[in-house]
Amino acid sequence: MIQGMSDTEEPESEDERRKRLRQRRMSAHRSAERVLARPGFLGTLRERLALLERAPELYNLDQPSDMYGDGVVEALEERTAGLLGKEAAAFFPTGTMAQQVALRCWAGRTGDPAVALHALAHPEVHERHALSQVSGLRPVRVTGEPRPPTAAEVRGLDEPFGTLMLELPLRDAGFLLPSWEELTEVVEAAREREAVVHFDGARLWESTVHFGRTLAEIADLADSVYVSFYKSLDGYGGAALAGPRELVEEARAWRHRYGGTAFQQFPTALSALAGLERELPRLPSYVRHARVVAAALREGFAEAGLPWARVHPAEPHTHEFQLWLPYDADVLARAAIRTAEETGTMLFPDGWDARGPGIALTEVSVRAAGLEWTADDVREAVAGFTARLTEEMKGANGAN
Fold first, then answer.
1. Same structural domain, 134 and 104
2. How many independent structural domains does the chain possess?
3. Is 382:301 a contact under the CB 8 Å cutoff?
4. I need a surface site. Which of 53, 132, 236, 282 has the fewest CB within 10 A?
5. Which residues contact 77 (CB under 8 A, 6 or more apart)?
């Protein structure tokens, strides 16, 4: 019998234990006085509703409410198309639906259901094979390496494809972006193969600093672009597909078939307009400060004498990046939570993902709250975290 348990109690399952740890982590994040980012989706309902307090500055609230995609939804679509330099845009409730529709439309135009994409792209990792199971498309993996695909790989793919999908940035590889030259070469390689190019730009908004180009210049390389309104802009949800007007009109028809033309969507549309107004101009400052934070993390862990710590990429391409440490994921999670509970500072609010025996990674995001942190603040927080990590390690070794 486990110590502390009565003989009538059921032992805690692994799923229950992880759920409990996650709830404790989220509670610690909400209560922490200092964090690098406070994404809106972790807020209370009251805090989320406050996002619309400035709605009168964003749209005429005396206009009729939207019905099946008109009104404020159309205003959001026009604003998005203008920012991306495309002829038109269509609002979708989810990015998964937007991209399936886009790729399905392109397959009809090219006559080829094959979609070339990275093995770590969102449809391959997070959508339960939706491209093939729902849309009748055939994913063709360009590469599985944890980096953006190269022009040589696109040219050398040993089967034809109608569409090349590029995720910018490639989240699961560390929010990586190619250089501008590499991106233009990859697009040209697809053109040489008479394929169209679609950008999975869920986080495209924060790519301008790395590329040194405007959103419209980046989007101009692709035939169509999907963007998210909540991942970086803090909206309630929603996405948009932007491209040629004829494609977008067809996408609206498929949106209806997929059940995505909701009756009223004004709260989500207004929150997206708020994100474009408030968060979009701030993103470059987040990206630049993420580089300060990343450098300070490396310095802090080196000063703490850890065997090794890897910030990936070394200079973040966006305001998000990965941190790898050579410890068990649960030990790292407990150390991060304890640091927040005992000091009021939460350096690592996201979960830790085990990537092998004794090695794990977490994602670090820098937003408005992180702009207040100096490099010294980061190094001090690392010292507090590593002290508790050492204690957790001793406890784990003692238990074994």
1. yes
2. 2
3. yes
4. 53
5. 88, 89, 90, 91, 240
> Does a structural domain hold residue 3?
no
Contact of 261 with 97, CB cutoff 8 Å: no
As a whole number of angstroms, the distance between CA 296 and CA 190 comes to 39
Does residue 293 carry a pLDDT above 60? Answer: yes
Q: Do 174 and 288 belong to one domain?
A: no
Type of residue found at 165: M
Q: Summarize pLDDT for 303-330 with one digit per residue, the tens.
A: 999 889 999 999 999 999 999 999 999 9
Do the domain assignments include residue 367?
yes
Q: Which domain holds residue 335?
A: 14-42+282-399
7 has pLDDT over 70: no
CATH of the domain at 288: 3.90.1150.10
Specify the range with the lowest mean pLDDT, choosing from 4-13, 17-26, 248-257, 359-368.
Answer: 4-13
Pick the last residue of a domain from 259, 278, 297.
278
Residue 8 placed within a domain: no
Task: Write down which residue in 212, 244, 278 finishes a domain.
Answer: 278
Does 4 map to a domain? Answer: no
pLDDT above 90 for 4: no
